[in-house]
Amino acid sequence: MTTPQPADALSRLAPNYHPLPVTLVSGENARVRDADGREYIDMLAGYSALNFGHRHPALVAAAHDQLDRLTLTSRAFGHDLLEPFATALAALAAPALAAPHPLVLPMNTGAEAVETAVKAARKWGYEVKGVPHDRATIVVAAGNFHGRTTTIVSFSTDEDARRHFGPFTPGFRIVPFGDAQALDDAVDETTVAVLLEPIQGEAGVIVPPPDYLGAVRRICDSAGALFVADEIQSGLGRTGTTFACELWAVRPDLMTLGKALGGGILPVSAVVGSAEVLGVLTAGTHGSTFGGNPLACAVGLAVIELLRGGTHQARARDLGATLHERLGGLVADGALAAARGVGLWAGLDVPPGRGSGRQLCEDLATRGVLAKDTHGSTIRLAPPLTIPRADLDLALDRLTDALG
Ligand SMILES: *Cc1c(COP(=O)(O)O)cnc(C)c1O
Q1: Are 287 and 259 found together in one domain?
Q2: How many domains, the chain?
Q3: Is the pLDDT of residue 5 over 70?
Q4: What tens digit of pLDDT does each residue of 19-41 get?
Q5: Is CB count within 10 Å lower at the N or C end of the chain?
Q6: 353 falls in which pLDDT band (50, 70, 90)?
Q7: Of the listed 227, 259, 290, 391, which one is catalytic?
């Protein structure tokens, strides 16, 4: 057996990431700085965890106030922000959900929200739908990304995410993303839920065919299965609507939220949706020490407040039009093989023979632009929704130069 050596022989860090060679020390809105004072435009925004930029004043103020009052209670006791947080998040999400009067179950990371949705859907399946004990199935899409826990990688199609992590959790069926017929064929009386990202982020910002999510909703309705939308990356303004499912006026039964819900300050996630479904998670059946803690609720409430006016969603639409227009130009010029996306969110494919996505990201970093490759030749752009137009233009100028 060979012992893998860390890239830097002095590093005591486990090698589960391969970051760009940039060490950041401070940030404000869409700009971050390294120790040498070099400034970069952040075109990744923490994979959409920083939808409101670095250290948004309203979010930092909410966190500071709460740090001086109360930070953690555990759910053994109540605290004064827990109900207000649930009420505000339920109100924000209600227009996008199938059932009125949704419930909120707060967790911390995105993967925990997905795990919570899987558990709730299964328990609902047994107790309400009447699926025979331990026979529940959940249908998911190939190319998905829902997190890194053992159960979640059980239904991943990414070999790197799975290899040598088995044995896996059974009960999942995988169908091609965007293929309604394949989904219809996979659903049967054991199916408790269809779990999808409305737009696949990690896969390279894959937008499904226009009639797909409507068909998913109809298939779920006729099978008596839940539609669970993982909006952890696509939700909270990124696509120009509060939730991506709203682009197609499709209402899921449950949504998982995370990333931007914590305002780029701390991990905050939640499952929001049907009271009939989340109501099966009674005391003692599920929980989290940190879920719904006072600091998380204070920041989450401030995030919801930022989204309530719709100005960030409008910005994502306006700046997104510029982004996609300029990327379309690069495709027309042959500098890019393809560009996809919606709102302030794009996946670009570097043409064959023009180097890897990684090489382009390294080149961009030397030009003061931070982005991240995925799957070899693809680069994801997801700048803060608060990015000044001039910074977006500058980042796209530098991208054009790097591709030239
Ligand atoms: C990031 C992400 C997750 C996992 O979130 P973590 O906070 O990293 O656990 C789940 N689903 C989607 C769609 C994501 O983008």
Answers
A1: yes
A2: 2
A3: no
A4: 999 999 999 999 999 999 999 99
A5: N
A6: confident
A7: 259
301 and 327 housed in the same domain: no
197 lines ligand 1 (CB under 6 A): yes
CATH of the domain at 204: 3.40.640.10
Do 365 and 303 reside in the same domain of the chain? no
Residue bearing tokens 């989204």: 307
- What is the average pLDDT score of the chain? 97
230 catalytic per annotation: yes
Please work out whether the CB of residue 273 comes within 6 Å of at least one atom of ligand 1: no
Our answer to whether residue 145 is catalytic in this structure is yes
Residues 329 and 366 in one domain: yes
Q: Is the pLDDT of residue 7 over 90?
A: no
Give CA separation, 104 vs 51, 65, 119, 192, 269, in Å: 21, 24, 15, 20, 10
Q: Does the Cβ of 111 fall within 6 Å of ligand 1? A: yes
371 lines ligand 1 (CB under 6 A): no
Q: Are 77 and 186 in the same domain?
A: yes
Report the nearest-CA residue for atom 5 of ligand 1: 110
345 pocket-lining for ligand 1 (C-beta < 6 Å): no
19: left (phi over 0), alpha (psi -120 to 50) or beta: beta
Q: Residues 262-296, buried b or exposed e (16+ Cβ, 10 A)? A: bbbbbbbbbbbbbeebbebbeeeebebebbbbbbb
Q: 308, 335, 350: which is the final residue of a domain?
A: 308
Residues 304, 234, single domain; the answer is yes
Q: What is the pLDDT of residues 169-217, one digit of tens each?
A: 999 999 999 999 999 999 999 999 999 999 999 999 999 999 999 999 9
CA of 63 to the centre of ligand 1 (A): 23
Token duo for residue 9? 């022989």
Its pTM stands at: 0.97
The span from the CA of 123 to the CA of 104, in Å, is 17
Same domain membership, residue 272 and residue 339: no
Rounded distance between C-alpha atoms, residue 99 and residue 303, angstroms? 23
Last residue of a domain, one of 308, 333, 349: 308
For the CA of 201, the closest atom of ligand 1 is: 15
One domain, residues 115 and 257: yes
Q: How far apart are CA 366 and CA 381, in angstroms?
A: 17
Asked if pLDDT for residue 2 goes beyond 80, the answer is no
Domain CATH for 377 = 3.90.1150.10
Asked if residue 9 is part of any domain, the answer here is no
